[in-house]
Amino acid sequence: MSGITWHYVLKFIITGDAAVGKSSLLVRLTDQRFLTNPDPTLGVEFGSKLIEIPEEGKIVKLQCWDTAGTESFRSITRSYYRGAAGCLLVYDVTSRASFTNARSWLADVREHADPHLTCILVGNKVDLCEAEDGTSNGRREVSTAEGELWAKEDDLLFVEASAKSGVNVEIAFEQASRDILDKIKRGVFDDDRSPGVKLSKPANSNLNIDQGSTRPTCCS
Amino acid sequence: MDFLSQTYIALRGPTGAPQTASETITKLSDRLSPGTLLADRRAAVLSLKGLTRDWKEDVGENALPGLLEVLQNDAEIDPDIGKAALETLNTLCEVDENTKDLALRHTEYVLAKEQPTHTLFALLGNSNFYIRYATIQLLTTLLQNRRQVVQGYFLKAPSGASSVIAVLEDKREIIQNESIALIQSLISQSPDIQKVLAFEGAFEKLFHTVTQENGVEGGIVSQDALKCVDGLLRFNTSNQSYFRETTLPSSLCSLLQFPPNLQIQDPVPQEFSLQFWDQQKLINVSLVIGIMGMLISSKGNSAPDSSVFVRCFTELALSSNAPTPLKTQALRLLPDNLTFPLSGVILTPYMPVPETNGEEWDRLEPASALDVLVELAVHGEYNGLYRDKRTTESLELRSAAATVFENFVNKEEIRQAIVQGMAPSEATNIPSISPLLYALCLPPSSPINFANVTSTHFATLLFAQLLSSSSRSKTLARSIKPHTAVPTTPAQGQFFVPADGPLREGAEVEDEDDDDSPQSLLHLFNENLSLAFLSRSRMESNDQEAREWDKLIIAYLCLLSQWLWTDPKAVREFLDTGGLGVLVEPINQTTDAESLIPGLCAFLLGICYEFNRQPGEITRATIHPIINRLGVDMLVGQMNRLREDDRFKAVGPTSIVLPYPTAISLRSGTTAPSETEGEIWFDWAFVDFWKSNQYTIQRGLGTDPNAMSPSAGASAESAMLISSLRDVIRSQAQELEEMQQKIGEASAWETKLSELQAQVSQMEARLVQTDEKIKNLRRSKRTCWYCWMRSAPSERRIRRGLGRLGLMFLRMRGMKKRMKKRKKIRTIYHCLSWSMC
Ligand SMILES: Nc1nc2c(ncn2[C@@H]2O[C@H](COP(=O)(O)OP(=O)(O)OP(=O)(O)O)[C@@H](O)[C@H]2O)c(=O)[nH]1
Ligand SMILES: [Mg+2]
C-alpha cells in the first residue's frame, strides 16, 4: 500500500479465436511463465502489470481483461469492449482460420468499443515457425507480409509474437500503450474522457473522509 | 379530463349497459395495441393499473402482451405511460401470500423472451426519476422471482452494465437505496456479472457512495454499498486481484482512520484507537474488516498491504476502544499461519477511565503485542477491567485471542522460547515473571473467585498449546519453579501500569507456607488439584460455586493429560508427588450428576499407566492392580460418558464458548450476547487431542504391566518418541565407541564374540518378528498404516543403528564387564521394539 507508483492506468482487452494463445500472452506478460496446458478461459479473467514507457518518462499500469474466444461467451465478452482503451487482437500464425476470423472480431470491437480505441494485431505462436529441419517456415499458415498488409489497411498496429518463447510479448503491450499515450498527448481524448484511461491522482484523494470532528476526549 | 372521459367510455361500453370487470379489462387490454392513439393507450394503462390490485388474474391474462408492447414502444418517449406500465407489471409479478403462483406465472411470461428484460435495462439508463425508480422496482421483483433468468439476459443486454453503473451514480437518495438492493441480487452467485460490473468501475462508484455518506459513520446506504463491495469480491478471485491493483485497499484502511502506509515501528494514531461507536458504525466497520480479511486470506500473506491489514487488525483488537464483537472478528480474521512479528510490535493500549461512560481514556504503558494478546486471553479486555462479568461476548474475544496465540506458537522455536522465558535462567536464577505463569499458578481460594477461575482456565489452555507435541518444551516446563517465579504482586502490573491511578486490585497472591526446596510446576498443579477436589467435595452439586470448582479441576486435568502424554519423566514426577491418589478417588466416588471429571481422571490415569516408563517407586506393576480393581470396563465407560456430554460435544474449532445454563432458562434468549453470560469447558485442541488418543489409552489400560507400549506405533506422536529414542541410541553408540577403545587394548576373547554375534542375529530375528507385527497392524487399521508410514524412515535409521551396533560388538573383544553390557544392550533392544510395535 505504498503510494501510487504509476502515471496512467490503461484498460486493455485481449480478443481473438479460441486457443490462439490469449491467456498465454497475458500470463507471459504478468508472470513470465508459459503454461503448456492452460484451461480455456470461461468468460473473462483479469491480470495486471506495470510497464515503463521511457521516452515519455511515464509508468503505466496495464489492466488487462483476457476474454474467452469460445463463441458461447461472446455476448459476455462484448460487455468489456466499451470500457477499454486498448485491444490486443490475437490470431495464431499456424491457423489460417483464426486469421480469417480476426476480421469478425475486429468488426465486433469496432461496433462496441470507444472509437479512439487502439488496436494491435498480434500473430501469436511464431515459435512454431522454426521447423526442425532449420527451414524458417515450419507450420506457418499466415505470412508476416499478409498480417502486416491487413493491419495497414485497417489501421491497426502489428506484431508477431510468441507466448512460449516470450518474444515480442511485452513489446506488443508497449507499442499499444505508446500509441494511447500519444493520443492523450495530442488531445484525442478530451480531458481523459476515454473510458479506459485513468490518470493517477495524488495518493488517496479518491477518499476524503472528514477526520477529527468526532473524537473522544482523551485525558492522556 | 381527457383521461377520465376515455375511461368512462371504456367502462360504459358502447351500448351504455354496465359491464363486468372482466369485460372492461378485455376492452382496456385491446386498447394497448400500437394502432390506438398514444393518449388512448395511456388512459388504458392507467385504468388497468387501478384494476390490477383487485383483478390481478384478469389483468394478467388479458393485458400482459399489451403492457410489454407499451413498455417497449412508449416508455422511453412518454414517462407517464412508462411509469404506469412498469408499476402495473410490478404489481402483477410481485409475490404476496395469496397469489404466489399467479405472480410467478406472470413473471414467467415477462421473462419468456429476452426483449422485455433488455428494454428494462435500457430504461434503467433513463434519467427520469419515475421511470428509473419503477424500473428498479420491477427488475428487483423479477430477480427475486427468477434470478438466474434475469442474470442470463443481463449478460446479453447491450447496455446492461453501463446502466447499472449510471444508477449507482444517481445522487437521489431513494434511487440509491433501491439500486443497491437491485445490484445485490443481480450479482448474487454470478461471477460473470460481478466481473463485468467490476470492469465498469462498480468498486470505485460504491466507494464513492460510501465516502459521500460519511464513510463508516454513515447509515444504511454506507452499509449496503459495503455489502455490495463484499458481494463483488467474496467468491471471485479475478475481482480480488483486480481490486488489489487499485488504490481501494488503502481506502479500506483510511475508512477506519488507519494510516495505510504505517511502518512497523510507527505507533498508530490516536484517532484510530479511540473512536465513538454506535450500532450502525459497528455494522459498517464489521463489513470493512470482513473485506480486508478476505483480501488477506485469499493470498499468501507476504504482500506488503497484507501486513498493514494484519497490523490494523492487531491494533483494533488489542489496543483500541472498538466494541468487543469487532475485536473478536479482527482476531478471527488473522491468517492461521501468522507470520506477523507479534512480539516485535509495540502497542499502546487504552483503558476506559471508570465512571466516565467511555468518554475518557487512559493510555497505558507500551507493551508488545504478544504480551497484550496473552493478557487479553487470560484476563479479558482492558487489563481485566470487566473480568467479573463473563459475558458470552467477552469470552468469545478471549477465546479468539487464545486461538491466535495457538497459531502463533505453532512454530517450535517460538514455543520453546516462551517456555524458556518462564524457566529459571542460568545467569541469575531469577526467572522473568510472565503474566501467563502468574495466572496459571493462582492458588485456588475458598470461597472461589469466579474471575480467577476463568483466568487460570485460559492460562491452562495457552500453556497446553505451548507444550503439545513438543518434548523439548515439556522438558523445559519441568524445570519451571513457579514459587520463586510468582511474586506477591500482580505480574501484569509490570506491563500495564495505568499512566495514573492505583494498581488494580483483586489478584493478590496469598503467601503460602515457605517451602525450602522450590516446588515444580507439576507439583504445584498436583497440590492445587487436590485442594480443588477437597473444596469441591464440600459443595452441593447444584451449587453455582461447585460448577466453578468443576471447571478449575477440569482445566488442570486437561492440561496434565496433554503434558503427561508421551512424557515419561513428567509422569514420574506426577506420580512421585502423589498424583495417583488424587486421580483414583474421584473415579471411585462418582455421582450421576457429574459426567466429566471421572472420565478425565480415568483418561489421565490411563496416560499415567501408558507412559510410566521411567524407573521409580510407582511402577506400572503398582498401577496395574488399581486399574483392575476399578475395572477397565468402568474406566472406559467413564470416558465414553464424557464423550457424550454436551459440554464436550458442543465444542468446535472456533466455538468453545457455551451459554451459561441459568442464563438460558431465566432469560429465554431475548437478551443480547453482550448481556448473556457464557462459560467455557474445553477448547478444540483438547477435544481433538482426546478424540485422537482415547482409543490408545483405552487399549493400554488392558495391557500387561510388562508389555511394551503399543501406542508408539499407533499414535501421531510416535515420531517424537522415536526421535528421542534415536537420541538414546546415538548417545549409547557413542558410549560403546569409547568403551571399544578401552577394550581394544585388552586381550581378545573369541568366545565372547560368537556370543555377541548370536545376540545380534537374535535381535535381527526379533526385528523380523516386529516387522511382521507392523504388517499385521498395517493390514488391520488404516490409521496404523498411516503412522507406520510416518515412522518408517526412523525405523530404517534404527535398523542402520542396529547394524552399526552389531559391527561394534564384533570388535568388542576385550570386554570385561560383559554381563553389565549385555543388560544394557537388552535395554536398548527393549526401547527399540517398543517404538516399533
Ligand atoms: N507453441 C506455442 N503454443 C502456444 C503459444 N501460446 C499459446 N499456446 C498454446 O495454445 C493453446 C491455447 O492457449 P490459450 O492461452 O489457452 O488460448 P486462449 O486464446 O486463451 O483460448 P481461450 O481462452 O479458449 O479463448 C495452449 O495449449 C497453449 O499452450 C505460443 O506462443 N506457442
Ligand atoms: Mg484463454
From TrEMBL, chain A:
Comp. bias (Polar residues): 202-220
GO MF term (any one): GTP binding
One Pfam family recorded for the sequence: Ras
SMART domains hit by this protein: RAB, RAN, RAS, RHO
Region (Disordered): 195-220
PROSITE patterns registered for this protein in UniProt: RAB (PS51419), RAS (PS51421), RHO (PS51420)
InterPro entries hit by this protein: P-loop_NTPase, Rab_GTPases_membrane_traffic, Small_GTP-bd, Small_GTPase
Family: Belongs to the small GTPase superfamily. Rab family.
Name of protein: Ras-domain-containing protein
Species assigned in the record: Serpula lacrymans var. lacrymans (strain S7.3) (Dry rot fungus)
TrEMBL record, chain B:
GO CC, alphabetical: endoplasmic reticulum; ER to Golgi transport vesicle membrane; Golgi membrane; Golgi stack
A UniProt-annotated Pfam family: Uso1_p115_head
Biological process (GO), any one: Golgi vesicle docking
SUPFAM superfamilies reported in the protein's UniProt record: ARM repeat (SSF48371)
Domain Vesicle tethering protein Uso1/P115-like head per the UniProt entry, residue ranges: 509-700
KW Kinase (keyword) present: no
InterPro entries referenced in this protein's UniProt entry, alphabetically: ARM-like, ARM-type_fold, Vesicle_P115, Vesicle_Uso1_P115_head
Coiled coil region boundaries: 722-780
Main location (coarse class): Golgi
Keyword annotations of the record: Coiled coil, Golgi apparatus
Protein origin, superkingdom: Eukaryota
Subcellular location: Golgi apparatus
PANTHER family: GENERAL VESICULAR TRANSPORT FACTOR P115
Protein name, entry field: Vesicle tethering protein Uso1/P115-like head domain-containing protein
